[in-house]
Design a protein that fits this description.
The protein has about 110 residues and is an alpha+beta fold. The protein has one domain. About 15% of the residues lie in helices and about 35% in strands. The protein is built from two helices and five strands, in the order αβββββα. A five-stranded antiparallel sheet has the order 1-2-3-4-5, with helices on one face. A hairpin with a 4-residue loop joins strand 3 and strand 4. The longest helix has 10 residues. The protein is globular, with a radius of gyration of 15 Å. It starts with 7 loop residues before the first helix and ends in an 8-residue tail after the last helix. The relative contact order is 0.15.
Length: about 110
């Protein structure tokens, strides 16, 4: 099941709120949606712009709307090249999971 469109504004606002205006030239938080997954990433400008202008991206977390019958979201953190379910109860909305990413009590999202 796809992520409901009404959540796109929430994710956009959440990402924008993570970085103060004065720091946006050197850091961005963004997201992509693929099917039932919202992947949150940290983006930084190239260290050597003369070698290329592409920003680098590091995956931070993934929210999955993987129980649409009950309308539940789950949170995952990056482990190597894959994802592991984070020990947090599923929720009917992504907001508590986004708050958990910000808090990061186990240091698995931001390091």
């Amino acid at each position: 099941m796809a992520v409901p469109k009404e959540y796109q504004a929430l994710f956009s606002r959440w990402c924008a709120d993570r970085v103060p205006g004065h720091a946006r030239a050197s850091l961005q938080i963004g997201y992509t949606i693929h099917g039932d997954r919202v992947t949150i990433m940290e983006r930084r400008p190239p260290a050597f712009p003369e070698l290329g202008s592409a920003w680098s991206s590091v995956h931070v977390a993934q929210l999955r709307y993987n129980d649409p019958e009950q309308g539940l979201w789950r949170i995952y953190h990056r482990v190597g090249e894959g994802w592991r379910r984070y020990d947090h109860p599923p929720n009917a909305g992504p907001e508590p999971l986004l708050a958990e990413i910000v808090e990061d009590p186990l240091f698995v999202f931001w390091g």
